[in-house]
Amino acid sequence: MISPTTLRWNPTQLSVDVVMRIVGSILVITAYFVILHIDVTTGVIINLTADIISVPYFIRTKSWDVVVMLSFISAIGISKLMA
Q: Which of 1, 13, 20, 47 is least surrounded by CB atoms within 10 angstroms?
């Protein structure tokens, strides 16, 4: 079954939230590298940024489980920054 989201996908013109999700995915990988090898605080900030810019895509595609998961992960990251 083809979803309405798939029908609107045009490989030559990506919507803003798709680009944000792609950048967010790249930033998540970058953040884990930074956390492990450079600095935890900087890595957490990058990870929070990645999570926040990825959320609009998951809201549009109604992936509520991912939205809830990213919310919990963001809350954990914020608590790490405050500690």
A: 1
For residue 21, what is the DSSP state? Answer: H
What per-residue string of b and e applies to 69-82 under the rule 16 or more CB within 10 Å gives b?
Answer: ebeeebeebeebee
Question: Residues 25-51: pLDDT tens digits?
Answer: 999 999 999 999 999 999 999 999 999
Distances (CA, A) of 33 to 5, 14, 57, 65: 32, 28, 24, 25
Q: 40-60 and 16-37 are packed helices; what angle lies between their axes, rounded to 10 degrees?
A: 160
Residue 13 is given by DSSP the state: S
Q: Token digits for 5? A: 């989201």
Question: Which of the 8 DSSP states describes residue 38?
Answer: T
Can you read off the two tokens belonging to residue 31? Answer: 């953040």
Helix (H, G, I), strand (E, B) or coil at 5: helix
